[in-house]
Amino acid sequence: MIWTNDPTRLMLVASLAMSYGLVCLAPYLRTRRKREAAQRAKDEAAASPGWIIAYASQTGNAEELAGQTLATLRLAGIPAQLSELSELHAADLQRAERILFLVSTYGEGDAPDAAAHFAGRLMTGNLPLPQLHYAVLALGDSAYAQFCGFGRALDQWLQAQGAQSLFPRIEVNRSSAAAIGAWRQQLSHLAGTSDAPDWSAPAFDNWRLAGRVLLNPGSAGAPVYHLELEPQSGELADWQSGDLVQIAAPADAERPREYSIASIPADGRVHLLVRLHSHEDGSHGVASGWLTRQADIGATIQLRLRQHRRFRLEDNAARPLILIGNGSGIAGLRGHLKARALAGQGRNWLLFGERNEAHDYHYREELQAWRQAGMLEQLDMVFSRDQAQRRYVQDSLAEHAGAVRGWIDDGAAIYVCGSLEGMAGGVDEALAAILGRERLDQLAAAGRYRRDVY
After folding, report:
1. Which residues are registered as beta bridge partners of 413?
2. Residue range 274-298: average pLDDT?
């Protein structure tokens, strides 16, 4: 290293050091403030028992509805506190008199990642709760066989412990406005007020389809397109890596589809990866067919941004990151890599799987450039069809078990993005074998194991 007495250079070095220190300090301060606020809320609740609104969210819907539920109770003058389900312990449940549970279901009946520790710790045993009055809002998707499976299991467990239901469980299929309206009506009845905050979702804005490129010509898999969109107003909205967009296709505007954002605001556009879905009769998915085949460049797209708090970097911004995924899941991970590169944080490890290197190596040049620039410390691409025996990203994880443990011991967080079927379950099993199920559940509860899978 060459030292200098040049005041300008010394000031520049000091400024860079201070900036890096602030980047590292900010997540710590946010975490400390969050913990202190949670402890104050618990202390206040112990001194003056009120309602608890407990949520378990995978993509943020349950958390958002929990916040609206809290606002409704507070507007009516009812003391209440908000808590993630993972933060509740046996003593909290036995002390509480009223708890409103808003929980989503992940995959085929499982608890969301952050609630897995709660389910394993409490719902596998007996815990007398005769004093507790509760209600459950269960969010799910009827496309899955175990619709609202975790919400139903929670409701049944509470009943078995002697807790008394304030009203029958309400189940929400794909953010059904009618079901959410029923919850709001019951809530207003309990609170004794009809003057509740607006629960409606923000309106869609007009965006322009500015670019579309086929990323995998010749692939044995379905076509994958890189799309770029920009707001027609000219004012680019703000978002964070990990967030989502909702797009309303003209043929089915009542059911907006969600996509991971593959860019950051500094790119100037929202980037998406959309895989064309085809049905057995040869027709295409309503949204994917429109976005990739029917809409012309320059077409107006109805779009709104949605925070995805469970997949943002937030308190993990200064940690090393292990990024794992497959297929179009590279979108959410690419957003994180872009954010990390912009911040000058190179302790990143990407393990990613696709079919064939020749056709399905999405963003090859970009990933290799980050690798050469020191923004991607380790890169492991796994192509399942390039050898006689199929090989998947979870196999690569198992082969790097020692390195995974080392990264986690160094404080790393794990982000998984891609297909629920096959990849997500296989990766979860591989991580549990490497780290132990209890430790993996603890990482999830601490926000260091986050998944955006579909």
Report:
1. 321
2. 96
Query: Strand, coil or helix: what is 205?
Result: strand
The neighbour count for residue 155, using CB atoms within 10 Å, is 22
The residues facing 452 across adjacent strands are: 417
Q: What is the mean pLDDT of residues 324-335?
A: 97
Q: How far is CA 31 from the centre of its chain?
A: 18
Q: From edge to edge, which strands make up the β-sheet containing 413-418?
A: 378-383, 348-354, 321-326, 413-418, 449-453
Strands 244-248 and 300-306 turn out to be antiparallel
CB 252 within 8 Å of CB 288: no
Gap between the Cα atoms of 173 and 168, Å rounded? 16
Pair 291, 252: CB distance under 8 Å: no
Residue 362's closest CA among 223, 208, 244? 223
Give the list of residues 6+ apart from residue 69 with CB closer than 8 angstroms, or none.
53, 100, 102, 183, 187
The sign of the torsion formed by the CA atoms of 74, 77, 82, 85 equals negative
Token pair in block for residue 404? 């995974």
d(CA 43, CA 95): 12
SS3 60: coil
Count of beta carbons in the 10 Å neighbourhood of residue 90? 12
Report which of 76, 74, 69, 132 is spatially closest to residue 103, judged by C-alpha positions: 69
Q: Given pLDDT bands bounded at 50, 70 and 90, which one contains residue 194?
A: low
> Which range among 198-202, 222-226, 257-261 shows the weakest confidence by mean pLDDT?
198-202
Q: In sequence order, what are the residues at sequence separation of 6 or more whose Cβ sits closer than 8 angstroms to the Cβ of residue 146? A: 105, 108, 109
* Residues 167 and 55: beta-carbon distance below 8 Å: no
8 Å CB contact between 374 and 347? no
Burial class of residue 266 (count of CB atoms within 10 Å of its CB; 0-12, 13-18, 19+)? exposed
Please calculate the CA angle 325-246-287 and round it to the nearest 5 degrees: 85
Element (H, E) at 437: helix 437-445
H/E element, 164: strand 164-165
Paired residues of 226 in beta bridges: 213, 273
Amino acid at 306: R
Show Cβ contacts of residue 271 under 8 Å, excluding neighbours closer than 6 positions. 226, 227, 228, 261, 262, 263, 331, 334
For residue 356, what are its two tokens? 């064939």
User: Which residues face 294 on adjacent strands?
Assistant: none
CA dist 294 and 191 (Å) reads: 48
Under 8 Å between Cβ of 95 and 132: no
Token readout for 148 is 């609202």
Q: Is the pTM of this model over 0.85?
A: no
The Cα–Cα gap between 55 and 52 comes to 10
User: Does residue 271 register a pLDDT over 80?
Assistant: yes
Per-residue confidence (pLDDT) for residue 37, from 0 to 100: 52
